[in-house]
Amino acid sequence: MTLLRFIIIQILWAFCAKGQAPACEEPPDIDFGEIVSGEKLDYRESDKVQYKCNPGFSLTGPELITCSGKTWTPAPQCLAPCSITKQQLEAKNLFLSNGRRLAQLIQSDHTLGFMCSEGYTLTIPSVRKCINGHMDLPSCISETGKNCSHPPIVENGDITTFLEKEYTSGSFIEFKCQKFYAMEGQNISFCNNGNWTKAPLCLEPCAISVEEMENQMVELNGRANESMLQRVYLEHGDFLELRCKHGYALATNLSQSTFMVQCNGNPIVYPECKEIVCDPPGVVNGRFRPQRNMYRGGDVIIITCDHGFLIHNGHNTAECTKNGWLPPPSCSSKLHFMSYLA
Ligand SMILES: *[C@@H]1O[C@H](CO)[C@@H](O)[C@H](O)[C@H]1NC(C)=O
Ligand SMILES: *[C@@H]1O[C@H](CO)[C@@H](O)[C@H](O)[C@H]1NC(C)=O
Ligand SMILES: *[C@@H]1O[C@H](CO)[C@@H](O)[C@H](O)[C@H]1NC(C)=O
Ligand SMILES: *[C@@H]1O[C@H](CO)[C@@H](O)[C@H](O)[C@H]1NC(C)=O
Ligand SMILES: *[C@@H]1O[C@H](CO)[C@@H](O)[C@H](O)[C@H]1NC(C)=O
Questions:
Q1: Residue 140 — left, alpha, or beta (φ > 0 → left; ψ -120 to 50 → alpha)?
Q2: Whose Cα sits closest to atom 1 in ligand 4?
Q3: How far apart are CA 227 and CA 235, in angstroms?
Q4: Which pLDDT score is estimated for 50?
Q5: H or E segment and range at residue 81
Q6: In sequence order, what are the beta bridge partners of 184?
Q7: Which residues of the chain does CATH 2.10.70.10 include?
Q8: What pLDDT does residue 43 have?
Q9: More confident: 311 or 94
Q10: Lowest mean pLDDT among 1-15, 114-128, 274-288
Q11: DSSP per residue, 233-273
């Protein structure tokens, strides 16, 4: 089918090649899906094609793509469903939440609830999501299994349930991370026939000191109270809004005033804040003071125009900013100035 289409296009292309060149090439093929409308021999600017996924597959992204600026806007994807067999449910002592044991096909992004046979405890979460063909099934823990002793120790975390000498199979303990620590994994561990299921981890927070911020030429953006503190704590995964210190600007984008940094287990990566500097301006038909080789952000100069010339925009001062001298200092002739007014 695709080959035939290719051959036809090649033949017609040979005939039409003298015409206007098409704006876009053939739209991309996608796995587990096809183009259902808008297919042509050649494509012009703003042409659209529509995709559809095979039965059971779910489309993610835009259904329609557009030929724009000689390329196609990004094509959608078809995500696979999850299939669960009766045998899988039986082997894990699982039932569907309606109490039945039937084979299922679940679309990507959809969920399915589970329960266990009598005498078994279900591990959480009891509702599971299908993610592009993949779904982790919960487990059923036998309540007649071996007891567990010492519960697992979670560094920088606490057990919030009562401590016991022995725990029966199927019982659980709950954890909480200490302040500023972020939890990875489930907050529950089950006793499963003498062994504990995987305990969570408590991930280190980031502590950003005032010295570190000063060294990086950054400061907190509008959190006056916290700037009084010696350190700011940031949970793993969290973002903090910062800005460059006064007199500094973001090297990668001068017009951006604030930016985010993230705590992700590594040292925080800061963008470069560079000092705002201005060269002495060239003022034709005028002078300025103070005279220096170099000016810093916020420095102000006073401009005096030569006899017979007027300051251009009425401001006899200009400030060194990240965008250069503002307003741009210049002197224009009185005559010129009068003609403006006339
Ligand atoms: C398991 O623990 C429970 C409660 O802690 C206790 O009653 C029971 O005797 C224990 N079973 C065994 C086999 O040790
Ligand atoms: C454990 O997680 C559940 C749901 O995610 C929540 O309802 C419960 O409060 C949590 N327990 C603790 C001690 O944080
Ligand atoms: C419990 O853990 C031990 C050691 O890791 C292992 O040998 C044993 O098979 C486990 N028992 C069960 C019931 O999973
Ligand atoms: C700073 O903290 C004080 C008291 O701790 C509070 O009254 C004030 O509203 C806070 N200001 C800001 C900007 O958060
Ligand atoms: C620079 O920052 C401005 C303001 O945040 C933003 O509108 C612009 O898109 C940015 N430019 C680049 C090249 O990132």
A1: beta
A2: 225
A3: 18
A4: 97
A5: none
A6: 201
A7: 20-79, 82-142, 157-203, 206-275, 278-341
A8: 94
A9: 94
A10: 1-15
A11: EE-TT-EEEEEEPTTEEESS-TT--EEEEE-SSSPPPPPPE
- State the Cα torsion 84-90-93-98 to the nearest 10°: 60
The finding on whether 258 has its CB within 6 A of some atom of ligand 5 is: no
Give the distance (Å) from ligand 1 centre to CA of residue 199: 22
Length of the chain, please?
342
> Exposed, middle or buried by CB within 10 Å (0-12, 13-18, 19+), for 191?
buried
Ligand 3 pocket (Cβ < 6 Å) reads: 193-195
Residues with CB under 6 A from ligand 2: 160, 174, 176, 187
Q: How far is the CA of 258 from the centre of ligand 5 (A)?
A: 11
CATH number of 206-275: 2.10.70.10
DSSP class of 339: H
pLDDT tens digits, one per residue of 165-211 = 999 999 999 999 999 999 999 999 999 999 999 999 999 999 998 88
Atom 7 of ligand 2, nearest CA residue = 187
Residue 270's identity, in one-letter code, is: Y
Look up the CATH number of domain 278-341.
Answer: 2.10.70.10
C-beta atoms surrounding 103 within 10 Å: 11
Q: Residues lining ligand 4, CB < 6 A?
A: 224-225
Tokens at 37, concatenated: 């409308």
Q: What pLDDT score was predicted for residue 18?
A: 44
The verdict on the CB of residue 256 being under 6 Å from ligand 5 is yes
pTM for this model (two decimals): 0.66
CATH of domain 157-203: 2.10.70.10
DSSP-based three-state secondary structure for 88? helix
CATH of span 82-142: 2.10.70.10
Handedness of CA 84, 90, 92, 94 (dihedral sign): positive
- Identify the architecture of domain 20-79 in CATH: Ribbon (2.10)
> Is 277 in contact with 294 (CB distance < 8 Å)?
yes
Show the ligand 1 pocket: residues with CB < 6 angstroms: 147, 166, 168
When the pLDDT of each residue in the chain is averaged and rounded to a whole number, the result is: 89
The protein residue with its alpha carbon nearest to ligand 3, atom 14, reads 195
Question: Quick one: how far is CA 192 from the chain centroid?
Answer: 38
